[in-house]
Write a structure and sequence with these properties.
This is Glycosyltransferase family 2 protein. By secondary structure, the protein is an alpha/beta fold. The protein has 12 helices and 10 strands. β1, α1 and β2 form a beta-alpha-beta unit. α5 runs parallel beside α8 and α9 runs antiparallel to α10. It starts with a strand and ends with a helix.
Length: 350
């Protein structure tokens, strides 16, 4: 039986708080499923955790709705984990949320109302404010979104979270995206359809600490920029044009000084400074171009985005969902993404 909604939850070293999170998520999802007469499933995607999160997720009690556990062979990154969840989701509609407990399951009824009752295809959570974060981080996030949306055809909302629901046609559109370097927030905005922002306040982490250091956030930002936006190349070209204009002006000024006022030409210092500025600019632009070339190389090589080590499906009892209780371990297969034969097979496995 195909669920109406799949709730995809990526996990990375979340074993300590997973039982509590699962109980809250199952209670909220089951209550809403019974109230609306829907069938749901939870898809836990373990992204190479080192604390036994995958084994713990597979042993979690089935509390009214089916549970899938997809354990990746190593840590491939959150975007790959989201893609694995999308590939394995059996439901027509898909909801994404983090497994650290900061995305409140109590918002599930709000998302379902916006989808089922008001006809929105994408409803995404947006942080109401960042007053609890450091000023440097707020400045970094603001600058990142300004750069990301510079000259973009579609605007990616600032402070939008991965916590969102996609209607069946929005989820189908996202599955058709063939690229391997993915940025789900950008792709979710790019597909269009009716979208709405839902303000929320992230709950404080009850267990553990975030794995997103500044360097990891910087790496993710570069990944998002180079896979979704041409803004860095455009800014590099604009900077080069400005630098060339300044050099022309400076050269003309030197000529005027020598011919009109008889001032001797500057020597060694001006030459060295000019070479350093021009050389640094060239290296910067070459580095940006190298990032884009690396993305092109990744697409050309067409390696699978992730590998699945273990895959388990635990069905809810018959009295809860109308079908028998079974636990089905499924062997892992490599998946290249939506449209790849093995990826299609993975969605049909259960």
């Amino acid at each position: 039986m195909t669920p109406d909604l799949s709730i995809v939850v990526p996990l990375y070293n979340e074993a300590e708080g997973l039982p509590f999170f699962h109980a809250n998520l199952s209670a909220a999802a089951s209550a809403e499923a019974h109230a609306r007469g829907l069938t749901m499933e939870i898809v836990y995607v373990d992204d190479g955790s080192r604390d036994g999160s995958a084994a713990l997720a597979a042993s979690l009690p089935v509390l009214g709705i089916d549970i899938q556990v997809v354990a990746l062979s190593r840590n491939f990154g959150k975007e790959a984990a989201l893609m694995a969840g999308l590939d394995h989701a059996r439901g027509d509609a898909v909801m994404f949320m983090d497994g650290d407990g900061q995305h409140p399951p109590e918002m599930i009824p709000t998302f379902l109302r916006l989808w089922k009752d008001e006809g929105y295809d994408v409803a995404y959570a947006v942080k109401a404010d960042r007053s609890d974060e450091a000023a440097s981080r707020r400045l970094f996030v603001r600058a990142f979104y300004k750069l990301l949306n510079f000259g973009a055809a579609t605007t990616i909302p600032e402070d939008a979270a991965d916590f969102r629901i996609l209607s069946p046609r929005a989820a189908a559109a996202l599955r058709r995206m063939p690229e391997r370097n993915r940025f789900f927030k950008g792709l979710s905005s790019w597909i269009g359809f009716r979208q709405i922002a839902v303000p929320y306040r992230p709950a404080p982490r009850a267990h553990g600490s975030t794995s997103w250091s500044f360097l990891r956030l910087l790496g993710l930002s570069m990944e998002a920029l180079t896979s979704f936006s041409p803004a860095p190349l455009r800014l590099a070209a604009a900077f080069g044009a400005v630098l060339a204009g300044l050099a022309l002006f400076y050269g003309s000024w030197i000529v005027v000084e020598r011919l009109v006022w008889g001032i001797p030409l500057p020597g060694y210092p001006s030459i060295v400074v000019g070479l350093m500025v021009i050389g640094g600019t060239q290296l910067l632009v070459m580095g940006l171009m190298g990032e884009y070339v690396a993305r092109i190389l990744s697409e050309i090589k067409a390696r699978p985005v992730y590998y699945v080590a273990d895959h388990v499906l635990n069905r809810a009892p018959a009295e809860a969902t109308g079908h028998p209780l079974t636990g089905q371990p499924i062997s892992g297969q490599p998946f290249a993404g939506p449209g790849h034969p093995s990826a299609l097979a993975s969605r049909a496995e259960p």
